[in-house]
Amino acid sequence: MAIEPVAELGSRGALHVPRARVVPLSASPASYTAAVERYLTGAGIAKSSARIYRISLTTWGWMLAGEPAPTGPARRGAKPAVFPVAAIDDPALPEVLAELAAARADEMDAYTVNRELSIARKAIGWWQRQGWIVGDPTIGIERRSAPPDRTKALAENQITALWRLDVALREKTFWKMLYESAARADEVLCLNVEDLYPQDKRGRITAKGGATEWIHWQSGTAQLLPRLIARRTRGPLFLTDRKAPAGTPTLDVCPETGRARLSYRRAEEIFEENTRLLANPLASPEDIEDLDGFTLHRLRHSTLTHDAEGGTSTPMLLARSRHASVRSLERYARPSVDAVARHVAERDPAARRRT
Questions:
Q1: Which pLDDT tens digit goes with each residue over 65-110?
Q2: Exposed, middle or buried by CB within 10 Å (0-12, 13-18, 19+), for 56?
Q3: What pTM does this model have?
Q4: Cα torsion 80, 82, 84, 88: sign
Q5: What is the DSSP secondary structure assignment for residue 3, as one 8-state letter?
Q6: C-alpha to C-alpha distances, 251 to 187, 232, 236, nearest whole angstrom
């Protein structure tokens, strides 16, 4: 963004101190949707992250247009808001936006709310640097406090029960791969058939930050993959059940079946819906619509926690998690409920006497 000093004469001919005038680096896009796409490509967002960014920015699009963001089933098929990106500078928007964001925050978990706010601010900052907008209507919106969840790692019996669920082959394979590889869900969803090396039980993924890395799986995934792939030789590994709608990017369409790549949002919905009774073992099946299930990220967290409990070395945990810092492993060093239960049982005086 270029800044040009502009000298002005006052009412009595006095020269005012130069003020800054923003000169856009490029022509402003015609719409907010176009601005989102320009940001995703121009800011170098990794392919594995672009899908999540696009979903979050679509959510903020409704609110930046002064409308509540649809949630649940209403979101599926809802048309994104259409408005010029310059409308973000409307002086009345911050107050309206704060109310809409607060209402959404009351319905969503703090982690999702904070992640979406962070993504929106990154995009707005990039648009400001391009000279397309001047202000940031999110300045008055605060992040929500998110108390740490000490139960992120699933217990061994929950993992066992998960594999017994009556779900489609796609879900069985996807969940197994997440748990066995400790990979992030968005990384696995970006896998293509040609990225797989089945004989070595590994796959090539685009990791956080854009680096190309390997993930490794075990026999459970290896046994399911051939059935999932069938005779396909290329295209997205995990597909939707229907043909891809018009306008779907070519990279996200299977050239052999015409079906689209499974989205993170839909994959998360399926997992959450199928794990509601596992997450709430004392609840009645009649109450399932009012329950919350597990998130996909808990599979990765569970794997790394169970590895740490089993004595896996720090270098191997770093390699498995693909974190850059040892400090990042602290979240997995907390023993799971099963490990604590075994520790307490082994030190029970009454149990020792019976032995």
A1: 999 988 777 777 788 889 999 999 999 999 999 999 999 888 887 8
A2: buried
A3: 0.61
A4: negative
A5: E
A6: 15, 15, 8
